[in-house]
C-alpha cells in the first residue's frame, strides 16, 4: 500500500504548518509519484448549505469549484460517506465531467474525529485505473492529514 510514499508524505507534512500548503503538497506528491493520477484534489464539505467547495488541487483547472451534495461522484460521496470507485466514468449517469480525457475516478472520504469533513478526488486518463489498493492508500493519506492538522475540520471556513 505504498508505505514509502506514505512515509514521505508524513515526513514532508511535519514541516508544513499551513493547511493549504500541506494539502497542496499531498496533491503534488501523489500526482507525481502515482501512475496516471492525472488530477488530484480535495473538496471540503459545508454541511449547512449542503455544498462541496474545491480546495487545493493539481491538474487541469476545473469549473467545478462548488458541487451540491448528491450531484456527481463527489456529491454522492458527500451523502454516503463511502468511497466511490468508478471504472468508466462514461457509464455513470450521475457524473460531472471535467474533461473528455478523464476515463476513471476515485473519491475517498476524509474523516476527522468521526466527522465527514472532506474528500480526496482523483481522475485518471486510464480506464479502470483504481482498485481496492488505491482506496486503502488514499484512506491512509486522509488519515495522515486528519492526524497532522487538528484544525482541518475548520478549513472549510477559509473556502466559503
Ligand atoms: N467528476 C467529479 C467532479 C469533480 S472533477 O472530477 C474535478 C464528479 O462527478 O463529482
TrEMBL record:
GO cellular component, one term: cytosol
Signal peptide as annotated in the record: none
Domain of life (superkingdom): Bacteria
Matches recorded under InterPro entries: GAF (IPR003018), GAF-like_dom_sf (IPR029016), Phosphatase_reg/MetRdx (IPR051330)
Domain GAF as annotated: residue spans: 18-154
GO terms assigned for molecular function: L-methionine-(R)-S-oxide reductase activity
PANTHER family on file: FREE METHIONINE-R-SULFOXIDE REDUCTASE, GAF/PUTATIVE CYTOSKELETAL PROTEIN
Stated family: Belongs to the free Met sulfoxide reductase family.
The name this protein goes by in its record: GAF domain-containing protein
Record organism: Croceimicrobium hydrocarbonivorans
